[in-house]
Amino acid sequence: xxxxxxxxxxxxxxxxxxxxxxxxxxxxxxxxxxxxxxxxxxxxxxxxxxxxxxxxxxxxxxxxxxxxxxxxxxxxxxxxxxxxxxxxxxxxxxxxxxxxxxxxxxxxxxxxxxxxxxxxxxxxxxxxxxxxxxxxxxxxxxxxxxxxxxxxxxxxxxxxxxxxxxxxxxxxxxxxxxxxxxxxxxxxxxxxxxxxxxxxxxxxxxxxxxxxxxxxxxxxxxxxxxxxxxxxxxxxxxxxxxxxxxxxxxxxxxxxxxxxxxxxxxxxxxxxxxxxxxxxxxxxxxxxxxxxxxxxxxxxxxxxxxxxxxxxxxxxxxxxxxxxxxxxxxxxxxxxxxxxxxxxxxxxxxxxxxxxxxxxxxxxxxxxxxxxxxxxxxxxxxxxxxxxxxxxxxxxxxxxxxxxxxxxxxxxxxxxxxxxxxxxxxxxxxxxx
Length: 433
Fold this sequence. Notes:
Layout: H1 2-36, E1 47-55, E2 58-65, H2 81-99, H3 102-105, H4 115-138, H5 145-166, H6 169-204, H7 212-236, H8 241-244, H9 249-269, H10 279-293, H11 302-309, H12 350-360, H13 386-391, H14 393-402, H15 416-427
Antiparallel strand pairs: 1-2
Helix pairs in contact: 1-2, 1-7, 2-6, 4-5, 4-6, 5-6, 5-9, 6-7, 7-9, 9-10, 11-15, 12-15, 14-15
């Protein structure tokens, strides 16, 4: 019952996070588009520009003041709660998914950190990321946006590299996203909203507003705009183990972030010209290249695999505890057989593969999981029958053999020899007879 309730808590928090995130990012996209498409030719007195638009069967006329109208309107909408609730729900999701059981989802197998240390590192990184970013923006680098952007990129990817050494791939990616999200909401809470309050207060007190504060708020808003596409990728990345599961996951994240910023820059500047249109085909080619270099390494030819697999002797390991603390176990090498088996062209038998999968994988991936972590098979993937195992062979290859992100935290102690056994079986065509 506990696993069932945890699943619904995960669903509820994730749904709120997605809804508020869509509202926040959608507003960010819209206002950057609005700013870039204002008609600034001969604007009315006091205006920076205006825009006519049609949507939903109606025609709208929007005007932007250089600073503010002579008198404030009775109803003024503030865009802030979308950002605040996106961050709060994101932190809640970190707690539900990673911090409630850090040894399972957060830490990499064999990590030098304990569960509480991993949680402390994750939380501290959010605040350190914001203060470092804010310090750099307020320094002399703030007047050199290109150099500032490059340094921020290097620091963020450096954080990704550091996380990848102690966190799981998913944990590393999501914490990079959490740092960026914290920077974005920090910009709203600490810079953009105070600037807007100062502007409204100046108008109410009938004094000239300070133009420096709105300009600073606009700059941080643009930073947020460029952060959005990398953050959106990180939000969906947990569905794609070929990215976070790669040994070069931090480099893949760096590549995708660069491509995302390039694409965002084109859409931010296309109102002036299409001189950055080249970023779109470059991004497409870049994604193809990333897909190629992150692909699984080709395995040995069939005769070589058959010869190697004949030397693999499957030895069941001691039963692992799937309840209580659920600490990830170190993989223990299987005992070598007393007499080496003779090489055979038949490849590993399905019986051996089936035994490994039943012991290491089916505790979770079954119609009736025996693990207390799940009330139903994760992602609906089940290994109860030979047909189900054969059908999922490509996914098994990607997640248990190539990237080795499964089993989660290696809680069932799958050994490298067992992974090799499964890989050799898949190369042979995944026969079940």
